[in-house]
Amino acid sequence: MGDVAIKLKVMPDGPEQDIEKIKKDIEEKVNPKQIVEKDIGFGLKALEVMVVRAPDKGGTDDLENALSEIEGVASVETESVTLI
């Protein structure tokens, strides 16, 4: 069986948040394969985080909780989960 690719959308508290610091904190917490900045509007950027892991790790709640704890993060939402 293959691995699972999980795409999460991380929204900062506002446009004044330090996106680079949030990216570093994400890298330390979940070891993502990729982080992409997406312009939302009015200076606000969302981060699209791709995590690949074994299917026996379970759901995405642990990832969402870990990312929600990062200072400056308003919300975390799982956008997709797929087997690769």
CATH architecture: 2-Layer Sandwich
CATH topology: Alpha-Beta Plaits
Sheet-strand content, in percent, reads over 45%
What does the average pLDDT come to?
A: 95
Total beta-strand segments:
4
Number of helices: 2
CATH superfamily, by name, is Ribosomal protein S6/Translation elongation factor EF1B
Question: Low-confidence spans: pLDDT under 50, at least 5 residues?
Answer: none
Assembly annotation: single chain
Distance between the termini: 9 Å
Q: What is the global morphology?
A: elongated
Query: From the alpha-carbon coordinates, what is the Rg to the nearest angstrom?
Result: 13 Å
Which H/E pattern describes the elements? EHEEHE
**CATH class descriptor:** Alpha Beta
- Spatial strand sequence of the major β-sheet: 2-3-1-4
Descriptive report:
- The chain has 84 residues and is of the alpha+beta class.
- It has one domain: Ribosomal protein S6/Translation elongation factor EF1B (Alpha-Beta Plaits, 2-Layer Sandwich).
- It has helices spanning 19-30, 61-68, and strands spanning 4-12, 34-41, 44-53, 73-83.
